[in-house]
Design brief:
Helix content is about 70%, strand content about 10%. The protein is of the alpha+beta class. Among the domains are: about 220 residues, Rossmann fold; about 240 residues, Helix Hairpins, CATH 1.10.287. The strands form four sheets. A six-stranded antiparallel beta sheet has the order 2-1-4-5-8-9. A six-stranded mixed beta sheet has the order 10-14-15-3-16-17, sandwiched between helices. A three-stranded antiparallel beta sheet has the order 11-12-13. It holds the Pfam family AAA_23. Heterodimer of SbcC and SbcD.
Length: about 1050
């Protein structure tokens, strides 16, 4: 990671916006940061660390504490960093959680932490990669591949922290090296082997238990030997499998006999079923025959109706032939009626027109006599029109005055309403802000509660392991005790058997002389002494043990020895398991003390119960809190919207007040104009409505007189013309009536003749016989369907009567009873066959399963022999008591020390060299990663904590540089292009400073950027690039300065 631009705003001692452009360094790869104490040098490192990780470079400075006290309220604290990494350019921006002064009123509102991450292309365009704090944290860790602690250990060594890595114990170094070199995989290998070994062991035990379970499901089929074998403990699977073969053979024999019986019974069942089916068919045919007979009777009863329907159809067809002539007569009658109606209407119209003509003459004479009155009205109308402009101006201004008055009052009412609404909404906004602040405090509690829950869960996990392990240990120790007691008993039995054997051997040897004496005879040599004379042969005792007694005694000794070995082996196994569990308890106990300081094993149950209860309560509380804080996003939106609404309401109140002022001025000006016009107009005409009514009344009266005269004259002319027209129309219609009457008479006579021809005795008879074509078709179809159905029914009935002739109705009850009896016997035989078949299948499956289980157990035992051995080795059960992961970490540390010593030897003129402590620590303390210093002056090793301040800085700097080299070499994804060092050079003498600078120069020669904070003059003189931090009264500023 190489920084390009750092921007800090209202951050630490930087009150405003401070931009540091590292690109000004050009090709320079080392610079010193200088300035007075407290000016803000370390804050530059804080800014870089906060931009990347949201945390300052030191543990004592949190993101929420970094807001500048010099900054004004409107400045928001934020930091951005533009940097390059592995050829890509990135831009990251962060703003911590902070309090911002409200835009209205007093108080502050909380702004949540924010973060954004972009990738920058060659044209400088930014593409968003992450839009919030969580996404940015995840993405930045993925990109840089270091967390904040690793970054501070390797790339940024904060003030006072340079000794941490150097003097940390094995456990702390293990955590750092695990993260840097990602050795989790080696730990996982240890755990995987351990788990696999335990799994294999449990699988063998489970396989044996499963085999016993499967064998106990064998169908014994009454075999007494199998029943006895299944009652043994443990089960002898080989013996049981041999017995299954005999049982299966017996089952198959019984099955063959049963198959023959089933086949015979099936034939009987099929014959009974055939008879039932035949009887059911006969009954079905008889039922159909009866239905056909009933249907035929029903059809015969409808014969008269069908004949009647046939007659109706024939008459309807005749009536259809007369419809055309009837329609013609109806049309002619309608034409005659219409002509007579027109004639009647015209005669009535002529009478009305005669009366109207008389009235028109009278009206025209009246209107001609009213012309003098019209002239007087025209003179009065002229005078009124001269006052029109003043009257209208007066009315307009008076109306405008009222309107302005209403507007002024309306504005005043609106201002009052808006102020009330503003006060109400302000109060509601304050309440919501108060609620939001309380919820944010609750959010902090949730975070703390989650950490507490995690701690409790970790503690509970350790307590549970302790509880289970101690109980298991007690069980195993009890087994050890039992085996020890059993061993003592068997030892005594073994000793007794050994003594018995010794006694029998002695007596048996003594009895051999009597036995040999019994075989001697005179003249034959003694097999012991060779003499042919036997004067005093030994006497045989009837109590001497026989050779069989001797064999039995030896067998008893051997049996006791075997039993003794088995018990001792079992006891050793339990003791090893107890030792393993005790180690696990000790290890877990150490972890438990980390979560429960002062933990004592005797309080385990109390802690377990207390922590479970506490965890349940805290999770319940967390659930309640979590529900409440879900309101925060919606509440924040509501508060922001309310702030905008209140600002808008304030603006609207100001705008309304201005409008009210302007309209009040307009009211005063308009009132003066109204008073001036009022003096010019008579009172009765000041109302524009009355004025208009008077003018309109006179004008209307004049127009009405003109209109009435014209109307009277036009009406007289029009009426005279209408009278002439109506007289001509009456003559024409009379001729039409005569013609229509003659045509109707002729066609009616033709229609009456046709009724007689088609045999209709009256018009009513004809009218009732009329049907539509669809109705006639329906009647004909009904007649045809009836004839067809009757014929079909008759034919089918005849066929069924022929078939069922001489056949009696079968007895279904007896036939079905016989069928049921045969089916029950057949079903019973099938069930018996199925049961035996299932028993055969079950036993065969058991044989297959047990064979497979035995094969699996054998394979698992072979695997366990290898994996169990590897699990012991990787977990530290070896000569060096060193686990697999710690062995790998020690190897990495050796590489780091090798790289570090190259620089340390140079910086200390060959005096000091870092070594890894290889001696085992006492007890169960983790070891193997602690550091020693070898002093060439004394030729002895000592702990690194004994180094002085200057010597510690040299060693720490060498270690950090060596660590960076090895990490970059091994962890290819980690880029270490930059290193920042805060102080530490002040403890060095001039020669040591030269050596340290030369070491740093070696680093920068590889292209790595090195930034150093220091007050040491020699360092400033040797490094030509300087970032000056200048402190002012209202905040600090930065500036790059270059020597030469």
């Amino acid at each position: 990671m190489r920084p390009i631009k750092l921007m800090m705003q209202a951050f630490g001692p930087y009150a405003g916006k401070e931009m540091i452009d590292f690109s000004q360094l050009g090709n320079r790869t080392m610079f010193v940061i200088s300035g007075k104490t407290g000016s803000g040098k370390t804050t530059i490192f804080d800014g870089i660390s906060f931009a990347i990780y949201g945390r300052a470079s030191g543990d004592d400075r949190m993101g929420t504490d970094l807001r500048s006290q010099f900054a004004s309220d409107e400045w928001v604290t934020e930091v951005s960093l533009e940097f390059t990494l592995r050829g890509e350019r990135y831009y990251i921006w962060r703003s911590p959680q902070q309090e911002k002064k409200k835009s209205r009123g007093d108080g502050y509102t909380t702004i949540n932490a924010k973060a954004e991450l972009y990738i920058v292309d060659e044209q400088g365009e930014r593409r968003l990669l992450a839009a919030n704090v969580r996404e940015t944290d995840e993405k930045i860790k993925e990109i840089i591949q270091l967390d904040a602690n690793q970054f501070r250990q390797i790339l940024m060594i904060p003030q006072g922290d340079f000794r941490k890595l150097l003097t940390s114990d094995s456990k702390e170094k293990e955590g750092i090296l695990q993260r840097l070199f990602r050795t989790e995989q080696y730990k996982r290998i240890e755990e995987k082997l351990k788990v696999d070994a335990n799994v294999l062991k449990r699988q063998v035990e489970a396989g044996t238990a499963e085999r016993s379970r499967v064998l106990r499901n064998i169908v014994t089929y009454g075999n007494e030997q199998m029943i006895a074998a299944l009652m043994e403990e443990p089960l002898n699977d080989a013996h049981i499998l041999s017995l299954i073969t005999d049982i299966l053979r017996e089952m198959y024999s019984d099955l063959d006999v049963l198959v023959q019986s089933i086949e015979e019974q099936k034939q009987k069942r099929d014959e009974a079923k055939r008879r039932v089916d035949a009887a059911e068919d006969i009954l079905k045919q008889m039922g159909v025959r009866d239905e056909l007979m009933n249907r035929k009777k029903e059809l015969q009863a409808k014969e008269n109706d069908i004949e009647t329907l046939k007659t109706k159809s024939e008459m309807a067809q005749k009536a259809n032939k007369l419809q055309h002539q009837e329609s013609l007569c109806q049309r002619l009658k309608k034409e005659l009626d219409n002509a007579e109606m027109r004639l009647d209407a015209d005669l009535k119209q002529k009478k009305i027109i005669d009366e109207q003509l008389l009235k028109a003459k009278e009206k025209l004479s009246y209107e001609e006599n009213r012309m003098d009155v019209k002239e007087k009205l025209n003179s009065e109308l002229f005078q009124l029109k001269n006052l029109r402009e003043d009257v209208y101006s007066f009315a307009s201004r008076k109306s405008g005055l009222l309107k302005i008055e209403k507007e002024v009052l309306s504005y005043r009412d609106k201002i009052i309403d808006e102020k009330k609404a503003f006060a109400t909404k302000s109060e509601l906004s304050r309440e919501k802000e108060k609620t939001l602040k309380e919820l944010r405090q609750l959010q902090i509690k949730v975070y703390e509660l989650e950490k507490t829950i995690t701690t409790i869960e970790n503690a509970l996990s350790h307590l549970t392991i302790l509880d289970q392990s101690t109980k298991k240990l007690a069980e195993i120790e009890n087994q050890v005790k039992l085996k020890t007691n059993e061993l003592e008993k068997v030892k005594r039995v073994s000793e007794d058997a050994r003594e018995t054997l010794n006694t029998i051997e002695q007596h048996w040897l003594k009895g051999q002389a009597g036995h040999i004496a019994g075989t001697l005879s005179d003249g034959h040599p003694c097999p012991v002494c060779g003499s042919s004379n036997h004067p005093f042969p030994a006497e045989q005792s009837i109590d001497n043990p026989t050779e069989n007694d001797l064999k039995l005694a030896k067998s008893a000794v051997d049996k006791a020895y075997v039993e003794l070995s088995e018990i001792e082996g079992s006891r050793q196994k339990f003791m090893a398991e107890a030792e393993f569990l005790q180690g696990k308890i000790d290890e877990t106990l150490a972890g438990t003390v980390h979560y429960i300081p002062g933990f004592k094993m005797e309080m385990k149950d109390v802690y377990l119960q207390s922590y479970k209860k506490d965890l349940s309560e805290k999770k319940h509380l967390l659930g309640e809190y979590s529900k409440e804080i879900k309101q925060i996003p919606a509440l924040e939106i509501q508060v922001n919207e309310m702030e905008k609404e209140l600002e808008q309401m304030e603006k609207e109140i100001v705008d309304l007040a201005e409008l009210e002022r302007q309209r009040s001025i307009s009211y005063s000006e308009t009132a003066a104009e109204v008073n001036n016009l009022s003096r010019l107009i008579p009172n009765e005409l000041k109302d524009i409505k009355k004025y208009d009514e008077k003018v309109a009344g006179i004008d209307a009266e004049i127009k009405k007189m003109n209109k009435d005269f014209e109307t009277a004259r036009e009406f007289f002319t029009k009426t005279s013309e209408e009278l002439a027209v109506i007289n001509g129309k009456i003559d024409h219609v009379k001729a039409q009536v005569h013609s229509a009457n003659e045509a109707l008479t002729i066609e009616r006579e033709k229609f009456i003749e046709m009724l007689d021809e088609e045999e209709f005795d009256s018009y009513k008879h004809y009218h009732e016989s009329k049907k539509t074509s669809a109705e006639i078709n329906m009647m004909d179809e009904a007649i045809r369907a009836y004839r067809e159905e009757y014929r079909s029914i008759s034919d089918r009935l005849k066929d069924y009567e022929s078939r069922l002739n001489m056949i009696e109705k079968p007895n279904m009850s007896n036939l079905k009873e016989r069928l049921d009896e045969t089916e029950k016997i057949y079903a019973a035989l099938l069930d018996q066959h199925a049961n035996i078949s299932l028993h055969i299948k079950k036993n065969e499956e058991i044989v297959t399963m047990v064979t497979e289980i035995n094969n699996q157990i054998k394979r698992m035992e072979e695997d366990y022999e290898l994996i169990g051995h590897l699990a012991d080795i990787t977990r530290g059960q070896n000569t060096y008591r060193l686990s697999f992961e710690r062995f790998v970490l020690a190897s990495f540390l050796d590489d780091i020390l090798h790289a570090a010593n190259v620089r340390l030897i140079k910086m200390t003129s060959g005096r000091y060299q870092l070594l890894r402590k290889t001696d085992r620590s006492k007890g169960n303390v983790q070891s193997g990663l602690e550091l020693l210093i070898f002093d060439q002056y004394t030729g002895q090793e000592r702990h690194v904590k004994t180094l002085s301040g200057g010597e510690s800085f040299k060693a720490a700097l060498s270690l950090a540089l060596g660590l960076a080299d090895v990490v970059q070499e091994h962890a290819g994804g980690v880029s270490l292009e930059t290193m920042f060092i805060d102080e530490g050079f002040g403890t060095l003498d001039p020669e040591s400073i030269d050596h340290a600078i030369e070491a740093l120069m070696d680093i920068q020669s590889s292209g790595r950027l090195v930034g150093v904070i220091s007050h040491v003059p020699e360092l400033k003189e040797r490094i030509d690039a300087r970032l000056e931090v200048i402190a002012y009264q209202h905040g600090s500023k930065t500036e790059f300065r270059f020597l030469g």
